[in-house]
What does this fold into?
Amino acid sequence: MAAKQQKKNAFYAQSGGVTAVINASACGVIETARANKDKIGKVYAGRNGIIGALTEDLIDTSMDSAAAIKALRHTPSGAFGSCRFKLKSLEQNRREYERLIEVFEAHNIGYFFYNGGGDSADTCLKVSQLSQKMGYPIQAIHVPKTVDNDLPITDNCPGFGSVAKYIAVSTMEASFDVASMAKTSTKVFVLEVMGRHAGWIAAAGGMASSDDNPIPIVILFPEVPFDKDKFLAAVKQKVEKFGYCTVVVSEGVHWPDGKFLSDQGLKDAFGHAQLGGAAPVIANMVKDALDYKFHWGVADYLQRAARHIASKSDVEQAYAMGKAAVQLALKGENSVMPTVDRTSNKPYRWKVGVAPLNKVANVEKMMPKNFISKDGFGITNKCREYLEPLIKGEDYPPYDKNGLPKYIRLKNVGVPKKLPDFEL
Amino acid sequence: MAAKQQKKNAFYAQSGGVTAVINASACGVIETARANKDKIGKVYAGRNGIIGALTEDLIDTSMDSAAAIKALRHTPSGAFGSCRFKLKSLEQNRREYERLIEVFEAHNIGYFFYNGGGDSADTCLKVSQLSQKMGYPIQAIHVPKTVDNDLPITDNCPGFGSVAKYIAVSTMEASFDVASMAKTSTKVFVLEVMGRHAGWIAAAGGMASSDDNPIPIVILFPEVPFDKDKFLAAVKQKVEKFGYCTVVVSEGVHWPDGKFLSDQGLKDAFGHAQLGGAAPVIANMVKDALDYKFHWGVADYLQRAARHIASKSDVEQAYAMGKAAVQLALKGENSVMPTVDRTSNKPYRWKVGVAPLNKVANVEKMMPKNFISKDGFGITNKCREYLEPLIKGEDYPPYDKNGLPKYIRLKNVGVPKKLPDFEL
It folds into this structure.
């Protein structure tokens, strides 16, 4: 019994906005834990992130077959449900930490794997301190994930490469389209992409253009305060030279005073405030000033869910991060995050590294200044060198006979509860 | 010399909104013409559709290699440029027809292949009457294309199947995403798709859900006058049952009085009218009435340009229509359009048919009533049976080492002009 007690179970949960490849990390965690059954018991997943731990809403992943777990690798979204929930500090809400310990103890959990971005790293860091601060032995490992690509230390964040590929491919395709139409119809296409604080995803739009295949693209970064006149001049110049222009606008683009472009005080016919996007604002602006016909699109969730065009290197790295997290736990590590360490650009080479969580949590990595071209509307070769390997390769999901991808839905069988209910 | 003169050249042009596979039809036309060099001379493409013919702006496709022409099969958009330009009737604008004959004569053109939708079929029909009405011997064949899927007689229109696949896959992916987020964040995702008059593309969103993998989807068709209360009740019921809901809204959705939902009299802070989409209107409506967190996307050009996820059957049929057009011309036909004739549903079988152009031009095929479910928010099994074969199979483009598709840009070398300029 004592020996059996020593083999601890693991907790795994997904946090924040989901991605095309966060389940590939889940797959890496679960498959690696299963390969180490002598050391790790069951993997319990939190239903809807840390909330699952607090409410003792645990999923017994062992009820799903090896084939089902394998299929996570090619399934977008968060298979166990995600959450937007940040633990307060121990001092502010001791009750939540005591509850976590209760749940972990009740289910013999000794490993905590948390899969998310900056906020989630903070949650993971707080959990990692349970051992030291409250005497409960836990090893907390953060598994990096975020389309925002803003975690420090790691070369990139799993999830980003696939969004970047989707945006690069879509920008290229839409640009080919508008180029065909420009003579008598649409001359400007505006695509809005994610990225409230950093322009990483917008930058990926710039990859659609290359020396071999130049495409007139104007990128609007959140890092560059919006200058209407300069922007309109840039669009006009491209349309005059190429006949058309594609604008990739980050949702976070704002005026010099910090106000978002999308927040333009729109009111409907009844005077109700309406939430719009940045793309229609930009499109209307082009129409009003230059009288070019336009179309606009907003990729929104399509971009981060687009597993059908995921980047191969992104899928591999997402899986590798999940696998490495378990290996780090088995080595006795706590309060760390595996990282992608780039060792060479051409050819692209990387290895798994490790970072202490207190250097990760609450640190935001912005786009380097030398990734944005001098005029503020494009990307530099340095940026291209960085992005290219991340969007390289395809990793197509299998398709069903009905023409749709075979994305898995797990059984997600609940673990019987042992504790009284807990109010969040 | 007389014998050589008998071998006529062909004119090919692209018209209307371009698609992911219209170039596959171009490929079918050019490759089949090249395979019949004993009967057909050069293929001249019109730069920007019929405008290229009127302005004598012809492209010599023989200047592009076999490999380049082959690559058209996997390249979206219109390689020669498209146009929105409808010929007036002979009675209304005889000058344009005389000009066409001048240009055709100057370049020894005896075959006219026009690749487009309903309006383009009308243009093609008018050109086909040149022989009879003006004594110029021409064989005009229409090559069907339109994402709207509204041409009569043919089972479907090349271009539609690929949009349908893109929308089905994207709806599935975004639905998986919102399902993951629903516990603490987004509960409703709204996706706006093309289709101003007919709901074919919106219907494709319904394919994301199946008996094996049920997804709560509410579809808003242009065929069904918008009923706000009924719609909100449908969304509420889905969210209460599944925890989340995806809304696929056609751009053509309108109120019972015919006014588009997207036309809501939006004014910005300065009182300027703003053109918005239907998706933000629907999303704001859900927020106001039900207080669910939402996200919305507008696929716009991304959907019709998405060659990266084209349907295999669509690509095959697009190519087959181009090939058949040339074969019909070689058989001496005029004023016809090749069609896709469905001969069996399960397994899906089809063959190439032929329709007289006067039965095609200016006839719009709407969605059959029995394709829309009784509540007006979904698709029937009859609709599924129709759509399923059209989105079946994948036909991936090759990718470059930089992670982007290898889409071809032709040289598009102009044919030396022989005539004076012509004012459009």
